[in-house]
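Q: Sequence in, structure out?
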Amino acid sequence: MATAQAKTAAEYLPARRTLPALTAAVQFCRGCDLYAHATQAVFGEGPASARVVMIGEVPGDREDLQGHPFVGPAGRILDRALAEAGIERSDVYVTNAVKHFKFEPRGKRRIHKKPNAAEIRACRPWLEAECFAVHPEVIVCLGATAAQSILGPKYRLTQEHGNFVEHPWAPHVTSTIHPSAILRAPDEDRRHAQYRELVEDLAKVRAVLRAS
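A: Exactly. Output:
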């Protein structure tokens, strides 16, 4: 007996895979059920000529309401780390592995929930199309969810961050901590250590860009 094919976003992608066409089409995606409760799909943003694509996990509450990725506190940390590492923000395209906000209501607040494997897999066609439209030299996975969505479920961020591997989507793929993890650190010392780790990993990205 044949098994049903897993539902994905593939059928919702436009025939023309430019960033503007993808950005418009993603609002009509029904590749998983997250669209039913999110305000809108939050697609990636940045120049089509970007040398670096940075991939997070899922839009947050503010991103969901505004329709733009990395506009909250985590985005400000990322911008500061990029500047400190010497990477021009105009060289970066930012996006998420999953395009709709996943959350659980808690009173009047909407608390972020980690997307599951099926939701990540369903959204992968959008992510792949973005990367092929941009043709980056480097992909940086921010956090374990993004890294495992591209590099497989056995990838271990704690052991492999800052290292580079080849991938069909880009000549160089690496990972580092997600800026939101820095915000959740239990104390100032830990926040400082994690931020330094982020900057150090991004400095390695700058070195690859300079060498290529």
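The mean pLDDT is 95.
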